[in-house]
């Protein structure tokens, strides 16, 4: 086992080396040739075991592109990559070297973990002191500018902001969006992945229309979305990750000698957990569903985003949510890793982007939640699944949770990085 683990670690390290640009890491050289926001956070979790200074640089590079309003853009474009290599590229966004959308706020947890891996080097680089105010501004943007529902939860304005781009949870609110003209752009993703595994042309045209509308509003959270066109959804996955990030910020504040600030971050996390339970929890279903803020109706699809509130250690409904996770819809511990969509749904597709396959980052997050709620045996099995899937599929972007077939890009950044992190996790011993 030791020899196998060493070989897997070495192979994962080669992936991260091959994907390194000099100051950041691309998810994959072909399909995703730029720096992505939440990808970099997960990649830093693996890099901290190989080269902590590189992990720190990964995150600092991303936050150097932070906007004045505090948002962290979901893409930082590599100027050395041809403009036609990815769509929508910088010309579409008209925002300099970045996009104008965001992704889930997993960064504070990554920053804290990277600091802990090398506290001496981190202190020498003033890593925490540099990033703490930037992280605070990022969270402040979300809580102050994106609370469209007025109940203390963040809304996403595009499916891409969830990180789970093609989730069935977005189908109903997305259906109100008029598709863009497909003749106005060329999809580059189909050049690198099987078309059957990717979003449909109709879905992609709706994504483009939404992104263009937000761009044309100058990325204003006051003037967009409009009543006619738009997408405003309180996502339990996104909000759970923000609440967890506030808990991580509390730990960072303690390390910086700011006890009052730490208490404020913990209170913020508690408020969000309470609002999520009141707004997004369905007691009969035993699940967290996204809420369409425009209609006030739940998006009643069982997707992996509804499992992420397990990250919150004091979640009162955790036993019921664990029951759903281990039940027929997700069969946690019985299938491989964490299916991204309801196994009992006739629409479940084990190969289609976010409509069934398992992803390494979701598995990593769910495992963290299981450990926080004392589900050590399930967490152990999930760790083995994630490591085996990485080994069997050459670090595939996503995998069939029933057959273990790999899909999407290979040598995928966060799959390799999180394999390294799981191999190094002392809790597994």
TrEMBL record:
One Pfam family named in its UniProt record: MGH1-like_GH
The portions of this protein that span the membrane are none
Q: Does the keyword Hydrolase apply?
A: yes
Entry's family note: Belongs to the glycosyl hydrolase 63 family.
Question: Which keywords has UniProt assigned to this entry?
Answer: Glycosidase, Hydrolase
GO MF entry, a single one: Glc3Man9GlcNAc2 oligosaccharide glucosidase activity
Q: Could you tell me the Gene Ontology terms of the biological process aspect for this record? A: oligosaccharide metabolic process; protein N-linked glycosylation
The record places domain Mannosylglycerate hydrolase MGH1-like glycoside hydrolase at: 32-415
Q: Which InterPro entries match?
A: 6-hairpin_glycosidase_sf, 6hp_glycosidase-like_sf, Glycoside_hydrolase_63, MGH1-like_GH
Protein's name according to its UniProt entry: Trehalase
């Amino acid at each position: 086992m030791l020899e196998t683990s060493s070989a897997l670690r070495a192979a994962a390290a080669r992936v991260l080396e091959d994907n390194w640009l000099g100051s950041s890491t691309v998810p994959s050289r072909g399909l995703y040739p730029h720096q992505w926001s939440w990808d970099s956070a997960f990649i830093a979790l693996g890099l901290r075991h190989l080269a902590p200074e590189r992990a720190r640089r990964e995150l600092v590079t991303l936050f150097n592109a932070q906007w004045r309003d505090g948002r962290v853009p979901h893409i930082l474009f590599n100027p050395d990559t041809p403009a036609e290599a990815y769509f929508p590229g910088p010309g579409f966004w008209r925002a300099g070297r970045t996009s104008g959308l965001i992704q889930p706020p997993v960064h504070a947890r990554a920053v804290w973990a990277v600091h802990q891996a090398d506290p001496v080097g981190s202190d020498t680089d003033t890593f925490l002191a540099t990033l703490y105010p930037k992280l605070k501004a990022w969270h402040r943007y979300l809580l102050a500018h994106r609370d469209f529902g007025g109940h203390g939860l963040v809304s996403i304005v595009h499916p891409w902001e969830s990180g789970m781009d093609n989730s069935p949870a977005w189908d109903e609110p997305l259906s109100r969006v008029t598709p863009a003209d497909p003749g106005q752009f060329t999809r580059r993703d189909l050049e690198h992945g099987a078309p059957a595994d990717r979003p449909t042309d109709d879905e992609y045209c709706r994504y483009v229309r939404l992104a263009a509308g937000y761009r044309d509003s100058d990325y204003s959270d006051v003037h967009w979305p409009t009543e006619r066109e738009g997408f405003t959804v309180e996502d339990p996955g996104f909000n759970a990750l923000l609440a967890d990030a506030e808990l991580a910020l509390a730990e960072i504040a303690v390390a910086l000698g700011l006890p009052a600030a730490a208490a404020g971050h913990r209170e913020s996390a508690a408020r969000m957990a309470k609002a999520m339970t009141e707004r997004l929890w369905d007691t009969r279903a035993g699940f967290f569903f996204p809420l369409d803020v425009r209609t006030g109706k739940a998006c009643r699809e069982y997707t992996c985003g509804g499992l992420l509130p397990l990250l919150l250690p004091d979640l009162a409904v955790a036993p019921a949510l664990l029951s759903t996770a281990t039940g027929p819809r997700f069969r946690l511990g019985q299938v491989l890793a964490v299916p991204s969509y309801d196994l009992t749904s006739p629409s479940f597709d084990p190969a289609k982007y976010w409509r069934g396959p398992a992803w390494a980052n979701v598995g990593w997050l769910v495992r963290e939640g299981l450990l926080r709620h004392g589900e050590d045996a399930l967490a152990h099995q999930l760790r083995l699944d994630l490591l085996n899937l990485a080994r069997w599929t050459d670090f595939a972007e996503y995998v069939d949770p029933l057959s273990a077939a790999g899909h999407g890009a290979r040598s995928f950044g966060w799959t390799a990085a999180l394999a390294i992190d799981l191999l190094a996790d002392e809790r597994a011993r």
